[in-house]
Amino acid sequence: MTTAPSLTPAHSRATSLLRPVVALGCALVALTGCGGGSGDTAQPPAANLAAPTNFTVSNLGTFGWSATPGANRYELFVDPDGAGPLAEAKADDYNQATGTGFTYAQAGIQQISGALYATASASSLAASLNAHYRLRACDVSGCGAFTAAKTYDIVNAISHEFPSGRVATKFTYGLDGYPRLSKDGLTLVIGQSSPAADSAVYVFTRPSSAQPWQPQTVLRSGKSYFGEKVALSSDGSTLAIQGMEPTNGNVNALTSVVYLYQRSGSTWDQQASLEAPTAPSACPQPCRAGSIGHLALSANGNLLATSLSFNTPAGVGSTSIGAVVTYVRNGTSWSQQALLETGGKSVDLLALAADGKTLAVNQGAFYLGAPSPQTTTPFALVFTQQNGTWSQQARIPVGIVYLVTVGASSLSTMELSGDGNTLAILASNDPGRQPPELDIKPADLSCGPMVGSLYMALYARNSSTWQRQAAISRGNADSWALASDGNAVFYGNALFTRSNGTWACP
Predict the structure, then answer these.
(1) Are 342 and 361 in contact (CB under 8 A)?
(2) Which of 89, 183, 427, 480 lies at a 20 to 30 A Cα distance from 472?
């Protein structure tokens, strides 16, 4: 059995949904038997081994399956363009020197976890998006039967289809490093960070949902150390990317920057490079902005909201101020619109309505991590704007939790409906870690008893007043989604719907 490079069951969950990748064609990845068409078949089985069971493709080039009795190795075959003209071919074993190839390792009792690594490129990512995979088990006498061909459905992995349209999925174990998809599902953005100043963001398009993904462009900006924070407007034509630029050429002192790109036809042009604003007066000098935490764009891309904190350097004081900065576009020019202080030390959650007129953030959170929990009273703040002027509309007590350990299984997430009238928060109900007034009582629950410590808090706005409509518990679900019209939420593999202000349990 080959040796995996630090491959664990959490590999595909803890890393962004873009690594590892398989390259397209013979020149870009170590595949054997290239040539011919997708109709070509591999050699017939030479061993009496059944096809591996429970074969799944859970990421771009990440796999899992159940161990086959009697097998001492496995072979992965890749068709990089599915029904296209390129041939299916066997992936070479992992090469430690090049860092490419197929590798796998034990991931649990009778469970195997595998990955296919390749040098990142637009074509390698396109192959991962479009590829079909088959796996077979082998022993000393040969190889057995193949599994059925499997693909990675990235669209349904990062979004959910409601009757009112497709929306992005919220993940409880990550921030803004996941691929972004336009509302029509035809534009896809994937960022790849690098410790060197060569990080990139890849844009893919397709003419219809039945067509394969094709590379459209690769975005790099000077010496920027791109982060993994990206935002794409719903119409797919405006893209915001966080970058880190060396300060005065010093790579050990990086300045947070947001790059704004606009698409015209199939061409992307950089419209702006926005640096963090001047620190508010409440943060005494020397005070500087930290790295940007979240990015959010309105549906048409004309308003950008970014979260960040302003901090005094270590040894000077302990001031830390959480804030949100909004920018607006007029024609092709961007300018700062507002700096909204939250009263907390950081902004860990951010949600923006499609029309860009309602913004929700957290004021505090329970920080769970070594050496002991850092507790601040958590609230959700709702801001609204009228004619460019923002004001705080509501301060909602809710159990927001932010886990800073590796597992991150209790990370709260937040989303607004398209019109901004519905707010959904995956919140915590963990007595002893939060004030009693935030605890959810059995009478508060809308659909059965509390499962685990997380629940879905659903709030609705009537005029300028916010009230909780439902508290639903389905445990610590890894992902969930709120419909754009606010009338449905997919949570815990169940669909909850609202009619006339009342949420129904499935």
Answers:
(1) yes
(2) 183
Rg (alpha carbons) of the chain, rounded to whole number: 24
CB distance 295 to 258 below 8 Å: yes
Closest CA to 309 of 328, 326, 287: 287
Asked if 321 contacts 280 with a C-beta cutoff of 8 angstroms, the reply is: yes
CA distance 426 to 439: 14
Query: Are 204 and 31 within 8 A, CB to CB?
Result: no
Element (H, E) at 157: helix 154-158
Question: Which strands form 374-375's sheet, in the order they lie side by side?
Answer: 374-375, 366-368, 401-403
Domain segments of the chain as ranges: 11-146, 223-347, 351-506
SS3 of 263-332: EECCEEEEEEEEECCCCCCCCCCCCEECCCCEEEECCCCCEEEEEEEEECCCCCCCCEEEEEEEEEEECC
User: What's the full length of the chain, in residues?
Assistant: 506
Q: In what order do the strands lie in the sheet with 200-205?
A: 180-181, 187-192, 200-205, 214-219
Highest mean pLDDT among 193-207, 234-248, 435-449: 234-248
Mean pLDDT (whole number) for 345-372:
83
Contacts of 500 (CB under 8 A, 6+ apart): none
Res 475 pLDDT > 80: no
* pTM of structure: 0.86
Which long-range contacts does 105-109 make (Cβ < 8 Å, 24+ apart)?
105/1, 105/2, 105/3, 105/4, 105/7, 106/1, 106/67, 107/7, 107/8, 107/9, 107/64, 108/9
Judge contact between 215 and 206, C-beta under 8 A.
no
- Residue 129 DSSP SS3: helix
Calculate the alpha carbon distances from 186 to 10, 59, 152, 170, 208 in Å: 29, 19, 16, 19, 7
* Sequence-ordered list of residues with C-beta below 8 angstroms from that of 37, at least 6 positions apart, any chain: 85, 86, 87
Tell me 480's DSSP state: E
- Give the tens place of pLDDT for each residue, 172-208: 765 555 799 999 999 999 987 776 667 789 999 999 9
- Decide: residue 448, CB within 10 A, 0-12 exposed, 13-18 middle, 19+ buried: exposed
pLDDT at 8 over 60: no
3-state SS, residue 45: coil
Q: Could you say which DSSP state residue 357 is in?
A: S
Residue 143's alpha-carbon distances to 69, 255, 271, 376, in angstroms, are 13, 54, 55, 58
Q: What is the dihedral of CA 376, 377, 378, 379, to 10 degrees?
A: -140
Cis preceding-peptide flag for 436 (omega within 30 of 0):
no
